[in-house]
Design brief:
It contains 17 helices and 28 strands. It is α+β, with helices and mostly antiparallel strands. Among the domains are: about 170 residues, Acetylglutamate kinase-like (Carbamate kinase, 3-Layer(aba) Sandwich); about 190 residues, VC0802-like. The structure holds adenosine-5'-diphosphate, aspartic acid and magnesium ion. Aspartic acid (ASP) binds next to loops. Keywords: Amino-acid biosynthesis, ATP-binding, Diaminopimelate biosynthesis, Kinase, Lysine biosynthesis, Nucleotide-binding, Repeat, Transferase.
Length: about 625
């Protein structure tokens, strides 16, 4: 007998017939002798409908009342499902978040779960009842009973948090597709089902736009080692397993807000190559990194940012040992790029920085917490360290700094984030990274999950592709280039709870009134666009930077795969796929296991399709989406 948590999404409970089908599945699970908790979303598009209603009354409704409103959707489905179970002769009881005691932070509309009282659920389970819990909602305190919601898509997070708190054997997420696919089947019908994916990869995919799982649900599964399966509520197919490394014992208090940063990592031995003023047209990145891949040179970070006029900067880092060869490739290519720009005043130029180090903070707890990156920048600024490049992913922030600052950066970051374990020197050989990952996975295999985990060699370089059409780009012109600027800028946004992604500083310097300045571009979600622009505009004269430009017409397309570490040709293949479709890349940002490109919004779906097919991810069968 197992303790199982099942979660059913909106489409899965979208009609009376669907609720009855869910009741059948749930009661069959209980009849097999399992203890069962079922978490449900609101029926169909109910939540969207409620949002629309509110907007008809107020353009800016207060968040408390929005939570009061949106939480009603789930209350309908728990009651109906509980009735349907009883009709089948299966004892059941429905409970709201408040009745369970799902205690969250007092942050309306995006609360994080602090802890879950399990006594009442356990009591009802012991009475032989299926317990049906409303997803997406909690309360900020057991005295005030203020209703909070977890953020759109948050029922997945309710389910995994309940599973972790109850010590369940597994958490099953039932949805309208057969499992986790190589990309969104609504956009690319020949997307392929994965049998499994690591939680690291899924975290990236989910936060880069694959809405099949709420990223915070993956984070909890990863932190608590909770076996998580995503599958269709229409069939009996096995779906996709999200594999997590074996977890350390962990408190169930402060469930979602415990340690944000778990490790400080560094690589003291990098070099940076930047190509300035390359033409802003399709094919440039493909050409540069194509040559680099031909030489089998392994590139670490890649960034590209936008600029006034019609040129870009592309910068990348390599291990110092291969700098000479990487530099030679860049030098060889620059003249060809120069002739494309056509004007002498805009010549491409290679700039090399021989002695740089990469320093990173990592931890799943930083997801959606904008203050963490700002805290890192502030810590580095307090030690007088200037940041040359920034690269962010949901679970890691990396900064490229002068190599001579590496030791003091490690010290200040370990102190700031209270890291007592030794900082990790990034293995020079990427093979070692793979071996480490592989060890983690195989430990898990032997303990609880009896599934085949791919060996290091088999880890696919690209596991999935995601498209995010809900981002906008902001660019700040002429930001004074001195320590502390990134800290101040992103600190301001963090205070407004605005999460920032793809932060890219321009490589070229513009001197204004004798002071060097750079442009900084980054992306935020559409919902935060106006607030971010306003916040930055208000501080412009005090902090001494120029205008803030907002571009709403962007799409972010990303590839994710743990096996891309140490595989030279992966980035090139992505860039070449875009070039072949004549799609211009506006921004590039990479982390160890992902590469993201910003392109024009109109070209987002074609970009996704081109990349998906370039990596051979298409399957032979068309995936059915129930809607
Ligand atoms: P639910 O209501 O069950 O929570 P969601 O709409 O939140 O369902 O998530 C399921 C949807 O996620 C699918 O219908 C699909 O369109 C979309 N999706 C995006 N990326 C992926 C992916 N990589 N794999 C599967 N589905 C995806
Ligand atoms: N009903 C909520 C939403 O639509 C939560 C969820 O479905 O996960 O966002
Ligand atoms: Mg969902």
């Amino acid at each position: 007998m197992s303790l199982v948590v099942q979660k059913y999404g909106g489409t899965s409970v979208g009609s009376v017939e669907r609720i009855q089908a869910v009741a059948q599945r749930a009661s069959a699970t209980a009849q097999k002798g399992n203890s069962l908790v079922v978490v449900v979303s609101a029926m169909g598009k109910t939540t969207d409908g409620l949002v629309k209603l509110a907007r008809e009354i107020s353009t800016n409704p207060c968040r408390r009342e929005m939570d009061m409103l949106l939480s009603t959707g789930e209350q309908v489905s728990i009651a109906l499902l509980s009735m349907a179970l009883k009709e089948l002769g299966q004892p059941a009881i429905s409970l709201t978040g408040a009745q369970v005691g799902i205690v969250t932070e007092a942050q309306h509309s995006h609360a994080r779960i602090l802890h879950i009282q399990t006594e009442r659920i356990v009591r009802h389970l012991n009475e032989g009842k299926v317990v049906v819990v409303a997803g997406f909602q909690g309360i900020s305190s057991t005295e005030e009973l203020e209703i909070t919601t977890l953020g759109r898509g948050g029922s997945d997070t309710s389910a995994v948090a309940l599973a972790a708190s109850l010590g369940a054997d597994r958490c099953e997420i039932y949805t309208d597709v057969p499992g986790i696919l190589t990309t969104d089947p609504r956009l690319v019908p020949d997307a392929q089902l994965m049998e499994e994916i690591t939680s690291d990869e899924m975290l990236e995919l989910a936060s880069l736009g694959a809405k099949v799982l709420h990223p915070r649900a993956v984070e909890i599964a990863r932190n608590y080692g909770m076996p998580l399966v995503v599958l269709s509520s229409w069939t009996d197919e096995p779906g996709t397993l999200v594999v997590s490394p074996m977890s350390q014992p962990r408190s169930l208090r402060d469930l979602e807000i415990a340690r944000s940063v778990t490790t400080v990592e560094f690589d003291p031995d990098q070099a940076k190559v930047a190509l300035l003023r390359v033409p802003d047209c399709p094919g440039v990145a493909a050409r540069l990194f194509g040559e680099i891949a031909l030489q089998e040179l392994d590139v670490d970070l890649i960034i590209q940012s936008i600029h006034e006029g019609n040129t870009n900067d592309i910068a990348f880092t390599v291990n110092s040992a291969i700098l000479k060869r990487a530099e030679a490739v860049a030098e060889a290519i620059a003249p060809a790029l120069r002739s494309q720009t056509g004007t002498d005043s805009q010549e491409a130029e290679v700039m090399v920085d021989r002695n740089v180090a990469k320093i990173s903070i990592a931890g799943a707890g930083m997801i959606g917490r904008p203050g963490i990156a700002a805290k890192m920048f502030t810590a580095l600024a307090s030690a007088g360290i200037n940041i040359g490049m920034i690269s962010t992913s949901e679970v890691k922030v990396s900064c490229v700094i002068d190599a001579q600052d590496c030791d003091s950066a490690i010290a200040i970051l370990c102190q700031t984030f209270e890291i007592s374990s030794s900082p990790i020197q990034i293995p020079v050989s990427s093979a070692e990274v793979l071996v480490l990952k592989d060890k983690e996975s195989s430990r898990k295999t032997s303990t609880s999950l009896n599934v085949g985990i791919p060996t290091a060699k088999e880890l696919p370089s690209v596991r999935g592709v995601a498209l995010d059409l809900n981002q906008v780009r902001l660019a700040i012109r002429n930001v004074p280039d001195h320590p502390g600027m990134a800290a101040q800028l992103f600190g301001l946004l963090a205070k407004e709870n605005i999460s920032v992604d793809m932060i890219i500083q321009s490589q070229r310097c513009r001197v204004i009134d004798g002071n060097p300045t750079r442009d900084i571009a980054f992306t935020v979600s559409q919902a935060d666009a106006q607030a971010a622009q306003m916040t930055l505009q208000q501080a412009a004269s005090i902090l001494g930077y120029g205008t803030i430009l907002l571009d709403q017409e962007i799409a972010k397309v990303s590839i994710v795969g743990a096996g891309m570490v140490g595989q030279p040709g992966v980035a090139t293949r992505m860039f070449a796929a875009l070039a072949a479709e004549q799609i211009n890349i506006q921004m590039i940002a990479t982390s160890e296991i992902k590469i993201s490109c910003v392109v024009n919004k109109e070209q987002g779906v074609s970009a996704l399709k081109a990349i998906h097919s370039a990596f051979g991810l298409a399957g032979s069968q068309k995936i059915e989406v129930r809607a």
